[in-house]
Amino acid sequence: MEHNRRCWTLGAVLLVVIMGSSALTRGAWAQSHYENLHTFKVGANGYFPESALVMDQAGNLYGTTADGGGSLNCGNQGCGTVFELTPGANGKWTEELLHSFNSNDGEWPQASLIFDQAGNLYGTTYAGGAHGAGTVFQLTPKSDGTWTESVLYAFCSSIIRAQCADGSSPLDSVTFDQAGNLYGTTAAGGSNSCSGLGCGMVFKLTPNSDGTWTENLLYSFCSQEGCRDGRDPESAGVTFDQAGNLYGTTRLGGNLQCEFGCGVAFRLSPNADGSWTENVLHVFCSSSACRDGADPNARLIIDRSGNLYGTTDTGGNVQCGCGVAFRLTSNADGSWKEEVLHTFNLGGRRDGKYPVAFLTFDQAGNLYGTTAAGGSNSCSGLGCGMVFKLTPNSDGGWHETILHVFQDHPGAKPEGGVIFDALGNLYGTTIGDGQTTFGSVFEITP
Predict the structure, then answer these.
(1) Is 262 exposed, middle or buried (0-12, 13-18, 19+ CB in 10 A)?
(2) DSSP summary character for residue 288
(3) What kind and span of H or E run contains 272?
(4) Half-sphere exposure for 127 (CA within 13 Å, toward CB)
(5) Where are the domains of the chain?
């Protein structure tokens, strides 16, 4: 997904030459093995996988591609697909097309998938569906190995609801609660204006006995003056804590130091009457020159102590504004404190830029993630991105280790997060450079 708006313009970033002082931490390089498992090509099997993968208990990988597929309803680029990669005895992986979208059932899936306990897959499409504003869908495996798709909800479902008050354009995955309800965000829609498009919302889908699903609006952003409660959650979904609260981020709103606000981290708490109350935990770009980060574009993760971790697409290094990894910790008085764990590109071009994806924990408490650019001089000089690890130090700081730097081929520009298998191997996707490469699936063995 393109970075359409930054607190610092792309032109300014290109003019900056980072000289890289020896006093700055460039990050260590790890001796890890990188392997390309699958390369996508333009065509019916899909291309441009923009999201993270999900793995089943047998070790098969599942994901989505934003473009491609057999339908021409979305033009020559196709409407997107859902795919499965299966490992073979020879070490090679085989791709199988599980579903090709045709616009009527959705277009451009840009979010990762989730499983339920029965083995069904759930996801979202950014557009398409009955009203052209995106869908939540389910894929059910059949005994013959094929999968059946069902649209659970098509957004902007009622012309009576002005400005798609039930939401529009979901960009991230959905999340289950213990009762089997689904929760998620939409990048637009809701009950407030934002130039007539709506400012985004948080929704809940409840299954009915007849197989249908009912949507409920939990919170509509920009409900406060100046959108101080946030707006445009875009690619950030929601995360539950053990008490049933939901946490997330919005890319815009909050501090108006940026033109439309630099984003917030928020919590939604359920009330006894079924309503939800929003609390802003942190307003980004609250520090000098946005050193605390700006434009959070990924969902948060939570540790056993209730601390929240995430990334911002920009902010941090004042010369670059290439993003940060951060932690939010609750205080005794109910407030929250933000701590920047790593500022990207402080050490020059060998570090990454623009971490647009969520972070992932290993069992030891280390964090893993990707950056969509940086790491090298490839990909038109912006860098093709990298995979990194953040390790907590005994003094409270965090140390970055670079696991892999992309160099155009076979993959470039990872925009999704990474996941682990049971052996500690990492898996992820790249979208490619859009000219000679069109996406890949990779494995990193530490």
Answers:
(1) buried
(2) G
(3) none
(4) 12
(5) 27-74+356-446
Contact yes or no for 108/125 (Cβ under 8 A): yes
Question: Which residues have a Cβ under 8 Å from the Cβ of 421 and sit 6 or more positions away?
Answer: 55, 59, 427
For strand 264-270 and strand 276-283, is the pairing parallel, antiparallel, or unpaired? antiparallel
Q: Are strands 246-250 and 301-302 parallel, antiparallel or unpaired?
A: unpaired
Report the alpha-carbon distance of residue 240 to residue 218 in Å, rounded.
14
Tell me, what's the pLDDT at 159?
A: 53
The residue among 370, 380, 374 whose CA lies nearest residue 322 is: 374
H or E element at residue 123? strand 121-125
DSSP category for residue 312: E
User: Phi and psi at residue 12, in whole multiples of 5°?
Assistant: -65, -35
Which DSSP helix (H) or strand (E) runs through 216? strand 213-220
Distance of CA 261 to the CA centre of its chain: 20
pLDDT tens readout for residues 304-333: 999 999 999 999 988 889 999 999 999 999
**Secondary structure of residue 419 in the 3-state scheme:** strand
Distances (CA, A) of 405 to 30, 120, 245, 334: 11, 34, 37, 40
Largest pairwise CA distance in the chain: 65
Tell me the per-residue pLDDT of 139-189, one tens digit each, with 9 for 90 and over: 999 999 999 999 999 999 865 445 688 999 999 999 999 999 999 999 999
Would you place residue 436 in the very low, low, confident or very high pLDDT band (cuts 50, 70, 90)? confident
Residue 215: beta bridge partners?
A: 205
Name the residue among 221, 204, 222 with its Cα closest to residue 213.
204
Q: CA-CA distance, 5 to 413, in Å (whole number)?
A: 18
3-state DSSP assignment of residue 414: coil
Q: How far apart are CA 10 and CA 297, in angstroms?
A: 17
Contact call for residues 280 and 265 (beta carbons, < 8 A): yes
User: How many Å is the Cα radius of gyration of the chain?
Assistant: 21
- Separation CA 446–CA 442 (nearest Å): 13
Report the predicted TM-score, pTM, of the whole model to 2 decimal places: 0.91
